[in-house]
Amino acid sequence: MKTQVCIIGGGPSGLLLSQLLHLKGIDTIVLERQSRDYVLSRIRAGVLEHGFTELMREAECGARMDEEGEIHEGFFISDHEDLLRVDLHKFSGGQTVTVYGQTEVTRDLYEARDRMDGTVIHNVEDVVLHDLTSDRPHVTYRAGDETLRIDCDYVVGADGYHGVSRKSIPKDVLKEYEKVYPFGWLGVLSRTKPVSPELIYARHERGFALCSMRSQVLSRYYVQVPLTDKVEDWSDDAFWTELQRRLPSEVAGQLETGPSIEKSIAPLRGYVAEPMRYGNLFLAGDAAHIVPPTGAKGLNSAASDIHYLYHGLLGHYRDGDDSGLEGYSEKALARVWKAQRFSWWMTQLLHTFPDTIAYDRRMQDTELAYLFSSEAAQRSLAENYVGLPF
Ligand code: FAS
Ligand code: PHB
């Protein structure tokens, strides 16, 4: 098989890039290790920045998001009984965020690919990237007993943290930066009315909690748990009781509980791989970087990678101008690191760190007290939360 751009990974990053390039007549093939049902069974991000929603509209995939997504003009931060509303609309010059689950984003992208006869090949095995530094790279993969080959101009590694693409960059070329947090998030999805019309990020001495949602009848909640915890350690009742203990009493009293329809523990880490280009391989999304979800920057960091890569490839194929591709890694990393910083700051601010010293606990108290008292601090928080410009 031949194509112009071979994309490894059928998650949101790979699908969005494939859709955008297709609309400009640039041919792609997407290789996905899992089945479509498996990909669509994942429960992940819930908050979309303005930049991401714009890209979905540009990809002609924004209709259901615009119809079913909820515009949020602010969110709450609680500190035990204190509750602060961060007015995103006021402090970001009128910007907002959209609450619309990544699962639905991915579903919309798959449906668009189908509508346009896009080539997404599922259940591929043993993907190997070849001749990345030549001008004729190619990809091989196994389908059943058959090994197939795709010749292409470029390979995009959109295959997430555990993918094969980043590992195809020689160790003496790749620089990795990682920070592993000493706790995880236990997440629950339940068909219950959200406790609050806007998200609540809760700081509590027992640990962090987050009240989010997917719609007005589908709630998404998280509590910080030790890394040693297993999902089976947590009954639904134990989860609801712990969540209520970490929320202001006026909020906890209104919590509608119900059976979990999904329950999982995600570890928290910050990770960046540099460079995001090697020869004719470009990394995008979780293949190159991971953030702790506290700042809702995971999926949204992938969006700016896709924006830069889309315009770089368009410049090459339409105008013979390779400046976008040459500058991709440096430009993408500049925004990736700002998302890392914000996610690190929000995580430091709101979580209970085991083995922390008393001085750092007081520093956390003071950081929150300053945020609650300073419009300048809330303006900084707001401009990062709605998304820095691409
Ligand atoms: P993805 O990991 O989504 O997609 C990569 C795709 O590549 C997968 O479908 C995988 O099957 C495929 N693949 C892997 N190896 C392959 C191979 N060798 N060959 C072919 N295909 C291969 N972000 C937030 O903003 N908020 C959150 O609350 C949040 N929660 C998260 C919870 C969990 C458990 C995880 C893992 C992530 C979470 N994230 C969250 C981040 C998440 O939303 C990512 O940022 C987002 O999925 C990035 O999308 P992709 O870059 O497409 O990577
Ligand atoms: C979610 O709804 O899953 C969600 C929202 C905001 C975050 C993290 C997760 O910061």
Residues in helices, as a percent range: 25-40%
The value of Rg in angstroms is: 21 Å
Number of domains: 2
**Gross geometry:** globular
Number of DSSP helices? 13
Query: Looking across the biggest beta sheet, what order are the strands in?
Result: 6-5-14-15-16-13-17-20
Measured between the Cα atoms of the first and last residue, the distance is 34 Å
Sheet/helix structural class: alpha+beta
Q: Which molecules are bound in this entry?
A: arabino-flavin-adenine dinucleotide, P-hydroxybenzoic acid
CATH class of the largest domain: Alpha Beta
Strand segment tally: 20
| CATH structural fold name of the largest domain | FAD/NAD(P)-binding domain
Determine the CATH superfamily of the largest domain.
FAD/NAD(P)-binding domain
Query: What is the level-2 CATH architecture name of the largest domain?
Result: 3-Layer(bba) Sandwich
Spans of at least 5 consecutive residues whose pLDDT stays below 50 are none
How would you characterize the largest beta sheet? 8 strands, mixed
Q: pLDDT average, as an integer? A: 98
